[in-house]
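Contributing new records

If you add data, match the layout below exactly. Sequence lines come first and carry their own label; structure lines follow with theirs. Keep one chain per record. Anything else will be rejected by the validation script.
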Amino acid sequence: MYKEFKEFVMRGNVVDLAIGVVIGAAFGKIVTSFVEDILMPPIGLALGNVDFSNLFINLSAKNYPSIAAAKAAGAATLNYGIFINNIINFLIIAFVIFLLIRQINRMQRPEPAAAPATKDCPYCLSAVPIKATKCAHCTSELK
């Protein structure tokens, strides 16, 4: 059983998938940082000094100045600002993956078909070389 498990784990697909998951997680952290630290502050500034990560709806009777204060008090909140950040993260990741797959598909285009090496004789319909001026089968003159 150990030997079968080892063979399964060491197959190329499993190792490739594991590497893809690790790289994907790291890429996700980079995109999250890009959205939260670089992209959202200017957008928030343009919209009137709004910090999207701190937008929430308080469902309790008491008011809290931030999500952190509400969470510390155990209050129920709807954190729609964090949700907006996550949507933007997803859209950026999806767009980058689209661009990556598009480039990979461009690089994997099939080779153009080779020019035909033969043509058909119009009289006997036999295949003759392209450069032939006379059919080898019926001896007809070819144009």
